[in-house]
Amino acid sequence: MLYIVGYGEMAKAILRGLKNGKWDMENVGVVGRNEEKLKNIEKEFNVKTFLLDGFDITDKEIILAVKPYALTEISMRIKGVANTLYSILAGKSLTEIEKYIKAKFYIRAMPNIAAAFSASTTAVTGDVEVKKRAEEIFSYIGDVVWVENDDEIDMATAIIGSGPAFLAIIAEAVSDGGVYIGLKREIANKLTKGLFKSFSKIDMNFSEIKDKVMSPKGTTAEGILEMEDNKARGTILKVIKKTYEKSKKL
Ligand SMILES: NC(=O)C1=CN([C@@H]2O[C@H](COP(=O)(O)OP(=O)(O)OC[C@H]3O[C@@H](n4cnc5c(N)ncnc54)[C@H](OP(=O)(O)O)[C@@H]3O)[C@@H](O)[C@H]2O)C=CC1
Ligand SMILES: O=C(O)[C@@H]1CCC=N1
Q: Domains in the chain, start-ordered, CATH in brackets?
């Protein structure tokens, strides 16, 4: 059995990913504090559910998917020593997690919301004894990238965890731009979606893509001048830096 503590956005995205990947959902348990919400999860995913109070984690594989600030409360409500604790909490270091929840092995992972479509890229670190198992579990929700340490998970949070929200804002702005110059919203949205889909398929490094698209005296060069004039590159760099710094304050 694999247990997920939490039934929020990310827990549901992981459950969808597991289901897409044909994980045996009867061998998944969801643990939480609200009976009503547990019932809904049970119906939606065909999983077993358990109330958090007094839940015994002994020898179990547990994915922790609650708010980072809930760590203290969770530790007071559960009992036992887990086999492996997989935490997806932003900003909570392995050392901190170890203080609150007892387990033989610990893994920290940073997936994203694309887990629901089995398209997350998940950064993972922790005890090498369970590296293979961690890679197996998280491969159900997409690709897995093993990183060196906690700090790299915090850095990955800025790109992988929060990244979909940043790209959503960029996508929305691109579509708005299309509408501004005269496209119908429906077409602007379709083209923008198509752009992101096309981009994900281009197997070249980033500067190579830019160089191949940017023609001398062409349309792209005009757009890039506007981006550079408005410090788009520096702004995005700072967005990543600030996001990383915030994870250190959670
Ligand atoms: N959203 C994302 O894209 C990503 C999120 N994460 C991480 O995943 C975790 C969950 O985030 P997300 O799913 O977005 O959050 P949600 O707000 O959607 O869900 C939060 C979950 O935490 C539970 N919870 C909150 N407080 C407590 C508490 N005191 N005791 C017990 N349970 C509690 C909630 O239960 P209840 O409803 O009963 O309050 C709920 O199950 C976070 O740690 C976040 O950093 C990581 C990568 C991406
Ligand atoms: O915004 C957050 O704090 C969480 C962590 C990464 C994505 N969502």
A: 2-154 (3.40.50.720), 163-247 (1.10.3730.10)
CB 124 within 8 A of CB 109: yes
- CA 82, 84, 86, 91 dihedral sign is positive
Given this model, what pLDDT does residue 142 score? 97
Half-sphere exposure of residue 196: CA atoms within 13 angstroms, side-chain side: 14
In sequence order, the β-bridge partners of residue 2 are 28, 61
Put residue 75 in one of left, alpha, beta given phi > 0 → left and psi -120 to 50 → alpha.
alpha
Give the pairing of strands 48-51 and 28-32: parallel
- Between CA 111 and CA 180 the distance in angstroms is 35
- C-alpha–C-alpha distance, residues 153 and 150, integer Å: 5
Q: What is the pLDDT of residues 48-87, one digit of tens each?
A: 999 999 999 999 999 999 999 999 999 999 999 999 999 9
- Confirm or deny that 67 is annotated as ligand binding: yes
State which of 10, 153, 162 you would mutate to test the pocket of ligand 2, scoring each by most atoms of that ligand within 8 A of its C-beta: 162
Predicted local confidence at residue 110, as pLDDT:
98
How many Å lie between the centroid of ligand 2 and the Cα of residue 52? Answer: 23
Alpha helix stretches (DSSP H) within 101-231: 131-139, 150-156, 163-180, 185-201, 206-213, 219-229
Q: From CA 195, how far away is CA 38, in angstroms rounded?
A: 38
CA atoms within 13 A on the CB side of 243: 22
Contact 28, 54 (CB under 8 A): no
d(CA 29, CA 117): 20
Query: Is 66 annotated in some ligand binding site?
Result: yes
